[in-house]
Design goal:
single chain; about 450 residues; six-stranded mixed beta sheet; 23 strands
Length: about 450
């Protein structure tokens, strides 16, 4: 028997067939995610759910037309976003984690919706959720959305995670896994349920929320080509990636792709000395938690420098090449750890510490070279990651056993890995697979099969 695995990211929907008996992942496919709806307001990032649902159905029907041995469907999705189904507003859109409408002005004073939330909700009230108020958090953008529609949810309004929306369309049941409920910011992560006091205080009690699954239970069945295929709860893409990386309790996973996170796996949900303004506790599997710091500098920060190189080639020398080709030609540029005094602050995007205000400094007549520029950028990434990893170690009272690198950016660029290793003082390992999410879903499929063989109802 095989499982269909679907991973819905920010750029691509990746799918495959998982065979738990052989451990083989086959029939890999990739399709682009529906484009962002163009809007005048650049802070808004919405995607039509019809387009995503159509793409997912096409993937499922493509597999079911070929196979009669499909045991189940596993979903992994990008986190923090949501779908708000409002009877007064017919379109159903995915409000992405890249949406930041809560940063729009709330009144004539210039305060933002996020500012208003910060005045209304304390850090102590957010503590059970394991997260903090930030622009990417579903809670913040849901509050902004309802506020602009009159401040009160329409009777019959429903909230979905990206995965629970798809599950309801496939099975008729609005249910999500705790790993995807938690990033919205309205769940009690330790008890595995919605945090009702916070929901009521925000005026969300009139909204119908998804059920929360804390185990990989069957949510319902998808019927296609005469088959009744079990559908399992959606899991968060970071948790799936960490699971597939080979990281174990006590390890720190450095996950760097489009975005960047550091994740320490630990048995407790205790924050300890971790700063609650940007230190998160996310549920994982089997009673373990992901101590997480997100919005870290990542591959896209380095792309800012590579894009400058690309533009110089285009505008000065008339050479039109892609960003990927720029990176290929740069090769080991920056491998020299000595930047000759040149400094780079890679905060070209918002980070947990501050808004985007990156810089290139300490330039003198002889040190502004490509080699020094990238050497200084790698050193800065190492410094930033080391600082947060040491914070996590202090928060849980335990030194990291090892670093496990995963994600496209660190896989493609050994200089990033080396800079972080040197700054942290721990040798790291690269995850075995280049597709950690599907490897993680394979491990979940194996656990489901083990539980079935042993007669267990749930994992």
């Amino acid at each position: 028997m095989v499982y269909i695995a679907i991973d819905i990211g920010s750029t691509y929907i990746k799918s495959s067939l998982l065979d738990p008996d052989s451990g083989i992942i086959s029939e890999r496919n990739r399709a682009e995610v529906a484009p962002r709806i163009r809007q005048e307001n650049s802070l808004r990032f919405e995607v039509e759910m019809d387009a995503i649902l159509t793409a997912v159905r096409a993937i499922l029907d493509g597999y079911t037309a070929q196979r009669r041995d499909i045991a189940g469907i596993l979903l992994s999705t990008q986190m923090h976003g949501f779908v708000y189904s409002d009877p007064a507003c017919p379109e159903e859109r995915y409000i992405s984690w890249q949406d930041a409408r809560c940063l729009e002005a709330a009144d004539a004073s210039g305060r933002t919706v996020l500012d208003l939330l910060g005045e209304r909700i304390t850090l102590e009230e957010m503590r059970p959720t394991g997260v903090y108020l930030k622009p990417a958090l579903g809670l913040c953008n849901l509050y902004a959305l309802i506020r602009e529609r009159g401040g009160v949810p329409t009777p019959g309004a429903k909230l979905y995670t990206l995965g629970s929306y798809l599950i309801e369309k496939l099975t008729g049941r609005n249910i999500c896994h705790i790993t995807n409920a938690a990033p919205i910011g309205l769940a009690d992560v330790v008890n595995g349920r919605w945090h009702r006091p916070l929901i009521e205080k925000l005026g969300f009690s009139g909204i119908r929320f998804p059920e929360i699954a804390t185990q990989m239970e069957i949510c319902g069945y998808y019927e296609a080509d005469g088959q009744h295929i079990a559908v399992y709860p959606d899991v968060g893409d970071v948790q799936a990636s960490v699971c597939g990386s080979g990281a174990v309790t006590g390890d720190v996973a450095v996950n760097m792709g489009t975005a960047g996170q550091v994740v320490m796996l630990h048995e407790t949900a205790r924050i300890g000395r971790g700063d609650p303004r940007y230190y998160e506790i996310r549920p994982y599997f089997n009673g373990v938690y992901c101590h997480t710091i997100s919005r870290m500098p990542s591959g896209r920060n380095l792309d800012v420098l590579a894009e400058l190189v690309r533009q110089i080639g285009s505008r000065v020398f008339g050479q039109e090449i892609s960003l990927a080709e720029v990176w290929r030609r740069l090769g080991s540029c920056g491998e020299n750890a000595d930047s000759q005094g040149l400094s780079v602050d890679t905060s070209f995007y918002e980070t947990p510490e501050h808004l985007a205000d990156g810089a290139i400094t300490h330039i003198h007549r002889a040190n502004l070279t490509l080699e020094n520029l990238f050497s200084a950028a790698y050193a800065d990434l190492g410094r930033v990651y080391a600082g947060y990893i040491h914070m996590m170690e202090e928060a849980v009272g335990q030194k990291a056993k090892r670093l496990v690198f995963c994600g496209g950016a660190v896989r493609a660029n050994p200089m990033i890995r080396r800079a972080i290793e040197e700054a942290v003082g721990i040798k790291g390992v690269l995850s075995v697979s280049g597709d950690e999410v599907h490897e993680g879903l394979m491990k979940i499929a194996c656990e489901i099969e083990r539980a079935k063989a042993e007669g267990e109802k749930q994992l």
